[in-house]
């Protein structure tokens, strides 16, 4: 029986603690705040997006902008199917939504929290809140975990302290000799403070194509116009893939929006010209085309210098081309971002080159393990970050006896 210290009381921390204690170890979770499983609590609007239906590992890893190769080995040890089985066997039935996201049938994150807490209690896991570990000091074959309230000696330590906005938060890990990939925000909305598109707050489109100008970075999916700019799954997912590039641009960039990802430029031009011929006396603003919401249609026509009261027969080919441009390549100027503090996700963390994916053990300091967002892995929205937490937590927790 070993004494195991788990630093961090989040999803990865609890999962690692449960699996480390299941083999008879004495496990203590050290959490610097008073809140446990805080991201689980707020995830998915309080419903907890447990994982995603994507079960084929070769496809699953593509949803991680950083860590794809590393995660292949991790997911072979604890997969999406394993996650689903684990929770359902413990009384948390799950359901799959049309977009592949998986939630508790209860639609309450408390179902997940209660299960993790009960499992930890069942195996005798001790939880110490308001105990932030400031230093890990190797001693003999174990470690002293130094906090403001004293020190605890453990035989193994699993670091699951999560992602942080500032590199200084990783100093206690750097002191062990580990390299830290500078953290930058991931999963954020695009602010467009000078763009009149914000006047359309509340309008959503089911499937747009959005691309960052000057790059090959693009994504398709739902988009929502907000009072600060644009949001929705397409934007959040694009922000994850473009996290480091956008950080380097100081969050000042241009993005091009195709309001329907299925639009083809030549077909769109032909459709507009055909509509003009078939409905010459219809006012442009009277009927929106291509299932575009009326307010957005009026906005786009005015951007194309078309008066909504004009009749279609009055619209020139030049105006058709301008309307086409706004439908197919609408440009927004990004100036800033908005992150969600409770669900803050970072790109960056402990370098993957210094961790064994088969055990999650440090290659530099035997007896030190990692799990969760503290390492340089992050996924897009849709349950992928939690899946990485469950999988890395399982591997770390089941490897501490090696």
List segments where confidence is low: pLDDT < 50 over at least 5 consecutive residues.
none
Total strand segments = 20
CATH topology of the largest domain, what is it called? FAD/NAD(P)-binding domain
Please identify, by name, the CATH architecture of the largest domain.
3-Layer(bba) Sandwich
Alpha-beta content class? alpha+beta
User: What is the CATH C-level name of the largest domain?
Assistant: Alpha Beta
Could you report the average pLDDT, rounded to the nearest whole number?
96
Q: Which helices and strands, and how do they pair?
A:
Layout lengths: L2 E5 L3 H11 L4 E5 L7 H9 L4 E2 L4 H4 L7 H10 L2 H10 L4 E3 L4 E4 L4 H14 L3 E3 L4 E7 L2 E6 L2 E5 L1 E4 L11 H4 L5 E7 L2 E3 L12 E9 L5 E8 L3 E3 L1 H9 L1 H6 L3 E7 L6 H14 L15 H10 L13 H12 L1 E6 L1 E2 L6 E6 L17 E3 L13 H16 L3
Parallel strand pairs: 1-2, 1-10, 2-6, 10-20
Antiparallel strand pairs: 3-5, 4-5, 7-8, 8-9, 11-19, 12-15, 12-18, 13-14, 13-16, 14-15, 16-17
Helix pairs in contact: 1-6, 1-13, 2-6, 4-13, 10-12
List its salient traits:
alpha+beta, 2 domains, 402 residues, 20 strands, seven-stranded antiparallel beta sheet, FAD/NAD(P)-binding domain
